[in-house]
């Protein structure tokens, strides 16, 4: 098998107050995969994600992205390769127009002129927001702001797109539109979510983190239909949703 684009080995981390959040986590994601990271609140999912682009650094173990260790000397390169879309789009949108927000990252890398304009419009086109380039972000709907937040990350041309609860607070139409966008992207995706139907729809593979360790790594359908696993780790499907009734699964 090819080398993983994301390779986490025996990652352990404790916060300064002594709380141990991760206990030797292994996670390997290959290029082009879409993987859901599932688990109850307090499982360590956010702590793990914050290690992927060096916001936190490992107490023990290693994290590498395309063979490059996540370490202080490599942070600029790592943060180009790993793009994180946070749960609240307003954490990423802070300038006067959509165009300015999407241009911010590439401009900081030195891109200018027509090359910058092309990068911005290409990213906005991928999320269906090109017509909104000159609108102030605060005039957009929540779903539109989330799509622009994705564009700000895509404009950096990352190898890995990490999404924190991408479907939260979206109405059904916005939820479907975002799913269509994510399916269309030619990028490796790691999606942290409590939305188990969304995980089933978008991610063929799921990793379950619980109490700081990986307790399952399997096909999403197999995870969601393992009643004992689900009950043991406080994972619950929405009322009336049965994965076994789904006609087609992501490939």
TrEMBL record:
| Record keywords, A-Z | ATP-binding, Cell membrane, Membrane, Nucleotide-binding, Translocase, Transport
Q: Which named protein is this?
A: ABC transporter ATP-binding protein
ABC transporter domain ranges (all copies): 6-236
How this chain sits in the membrane, per its record, is: Peripheral membrane protein
Highest taxon in the source lineage: Bacteria
Supply the SMART domains for this chain. Answer: AAA
- Which Gene Ontology MF annotations are present? ATP binding; ATP hydrolysis activity; ATPase-coupled transmembrane transporter activity
Taxonomy of origin reads: Bacteria, Bacillati, Actinomycetota, Actinomycetes, Propionibacteriales
């Amino acid at each position: 098998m090819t080398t993983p684009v994301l390779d986490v080995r025996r990652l352990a981390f404790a916060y300064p107050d002594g709380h141990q959040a991760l206990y030797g986590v292994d996670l390997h994601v290959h290029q082009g995969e879409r993987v859901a990271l599932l688990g109850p609140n307090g499982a360590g999912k956010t702590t793990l994600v914050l290690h992927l682009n060096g916001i936190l650094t490992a107490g023990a173990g290693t994290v590498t992205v395309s063979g490059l260790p996540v370490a202080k000397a490599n942070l600029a390169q790592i943060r180009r390769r790993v793009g994180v879309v946070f749960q609240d789009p307003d954490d990423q949108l802070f300038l006067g127009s959509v165009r300015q927000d999407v241009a911010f990252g590439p401009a900081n890398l030195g891109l200018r002129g027509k090359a910058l304009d092309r990068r911005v419009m290409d990213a906005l086109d991928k999320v269906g927001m090109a017509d909104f380039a000159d609108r102030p972000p605060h005039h957009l709907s929540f779903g539109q702001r989330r799509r622009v937040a994705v564009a700000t990350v895509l404009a950096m041309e990352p190898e890995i797109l990490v999404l924190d609860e991408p479907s939260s607070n979206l109405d059904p139409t916005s939820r479907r539109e975002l799913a269509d966008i994510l399916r269309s992207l030619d990028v490796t995706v790691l999606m942290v979510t409590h939305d188990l139907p969304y995980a089933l729809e978008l991610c063929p593979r799921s990793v379950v983190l619980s109490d700081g360790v990986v307790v399952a790594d399997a096909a999403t359908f197999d995870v969601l239909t393992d009643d004992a696993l689900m009950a043991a780790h406080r994972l619950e499907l929405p009322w009336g949703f049965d994965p076994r009734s789904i006609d087609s699964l992501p490939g």
